[in-house]
UniProtKB/TrEMBL annotation, chains A, B:
Keywords: Metal-binding. Gene3D superfamilies: 3.30.70.100. Coiled coil: none annotated. The lineage of its organism: Bacteria, Pseudomonadati, Pseudomonadota, Betaproteobacteria, Neisseriales. Residues 2-67 form the HMA domain. This is Heavy metal-associated domain-containing protein. SUPFAM superfamilies: HMA, heavy metal-associated domain (SSF55008). It comes from the Bacteria.
Amino acid sequence: MTNLILTVDGMTCGGCANSVKKALASVAGVTEVEVDLAAKRVSVQHDGSADEGALRSAIENAGFDVIG
Amino acid sequence: MTNLILTVDGMTCGGCANSVKKALASVAGVTEVEVDLAAKRVSVQHDGSADEGALRSAIENAGFDVIG
């Protein structure tokens, strides 16, 4: 298992967090996503096959900004 | 110009609305998107070339539900 921590800007409520979760869950290999709204932190657990670029793109395509 | 009105569930704040707007704006042919959060109404203006299925998919992929 691989864990990736990203900082994501633009999430302001549970609906936003849900949006990011669903977008990431649709990327092949992702097994779990956790969002800490206050910290802007998104934790993505995957089986090692998920490409970091694909994960970042999924968040950007959902309308949020990966800032770290 | 073609205008499509969709009812979208799960948007609860301006960040959600922004997410839906950006997801739709990335679909080829889309020229303008307006979101009425309270009414759950999303208005999409496009040049006639945008496929309705692609518009619905963009919203679903961003983590929101098209319910009408």
